[in-house]
Specification:
By secondary structure, this protein is an alpha/beta fold. The protein binds iron/sulfur cluster. The site of iron/sulfur cluster (SF4) has 11 residues, from loops.
């Protein structure tokens, strides 16, 4: 089934579940579903729909408060795993489950078995994103049938068993088993590589039918130490601690703790709050180093866009003791 068909089917199903009492509705879509935004609006036209068009990269960016402020009765959020929250308006999460064909499952199983045999792996961890989650169980069963142990993953408040986010790998319980990530693109795979930099990690893309071992970790760790060193070498004194207002990224308490720590070490530290985090918002304010408490991937993937060193909350301690272990920033609820 192609993505458009899945989206249309899920929207028609949703239409049957809501009533006129839920109107007017506001809709949020991940970037990848925006090409179908007009179709969704048409199908739901009886419910006075509008589309919130700001980029939405996760359920961390749920806009129920804005929906309430604008007097919408219901918020419909497509494609992300429901975030735990007391919602301001009725909020419905619409899953976009991608069911793989039997031959795709066979390809994935065959690849995992082949790689495991070559490397003498007796146990593996298999992970995926929300969209492929329903395929994990058939893959797991096939691997077990072929005498490969599949490690047990945990369910948390933010993820189902075996599911990862770009900032959350807490489903993984086994710190030794090689990891096979089933999914497309590098966004999620990179987070696994950041967190488990001593483990073997493979990605298998069901869409492209390809696989590869990812080994970006050493370069990544060097880059992070490079950014911390830059902050040290320039003798940073004036710190901006950046906080996002997005519900699932808002870590104000953490920002306050960091400010206290920096001030204790004789630095100046101010907390800056915005929805999106762009350096242009505070470029002329005289800060020489930034600590990002918003989406961790801004620090790791987009630090290059910032003129001044952009550090994660877990890297602040390295400023005062470079021998401390580098911890990867993950959002926990
Ligand atoms: S905080 Fe960033 S990585 Fe985490 S769910 Fe939100 S957008 Fe994704």
């Amino acid at each position: 089934m192609i993505l458009k068909d899945i989206v249309i089917k899920q929207t028609i199903d949703l239409k049957k579940k809501i009533s006129k009492k839920d109107a007017p509705i506001a809709i949020q879509l991940p970037e990848g579903l925006k090409p179908f935004g007009k179709d969704i609006l048409k199908i739901l036209k009886d419910f006075d729909p509008v589309l919130f068009i700001d980029p939405c990269y996760g359920a961390c960016d749920i806009k129920d408060d804005l929906a309430k402020q604008l007097k919408f009765k219901t918020l419909i959020h497509f494609g992300h795993y429901p975030i735990k929250k007391k919602f301001s308006v009725k909020s419905i999460f619409v899953p976009i489950d991608y069911y793989l064909e039997k031959e795709d499952i066979d390809f994935i199983v065959k690849k995992i078995l082949e790689i495991s045999k070559t490397n003498n792996y007796k146990k593996v961890t298999i992970l995926t994103t929300i969209q492929y989650l329903k395929n994990l169980e058939p893959i797991r069963k096939e691997l077990i049938k072929n005498k490969l142990t599949v490690t047990e993953c945990r369910k948390t408040d933010r993820v189902e068993k075996g599911m990862i986010l770009g900032c959350d790998c807490s489903t993984v319980t086994d710190k030794d088993a090689p990891i096979f990530f089933i999914g497309d693109g590098v966004f999620h795979a990179n987070n696994i590589a950041y967190v488990f930099f001593e483990q073997k990690i493979y990605t298998i893309s069901p869409l492209n039918r390809d696989y590869k071992e990812i080994a970006i970790s050493l370069a990544f760790i060097k880059r992070r130490y490079g950014v911390v060193s830059r902050a040290l070498l320039q003798n940073s004194q004036n710190f901006a601690i950046l906080v996002s207002t997005k519900y699932g990224q808002k870590r104000l308490k953490l920002a306050k703790e960091i400010a206290k720590k920096l001030i204790k070490h004789g630095k100046s530290a101010e907390i800056l709050i915005s929805d999106y985090i762009y350096e242009s918002y505070f470029i002329g304010m005289g800060f020489d180093c930034y600590i990002n408490t918003g989406c961790p991937r801004l620090t790791y993937d987009d630090y290059i866009r910032f003129d001044k060193p952009l550090l994660s909350p877990t890297e602040v301690d390295l400023l005062f003791d470079i021998n401390k272990k580098l911890e990867i920033d993950q959002i926990k609820q």
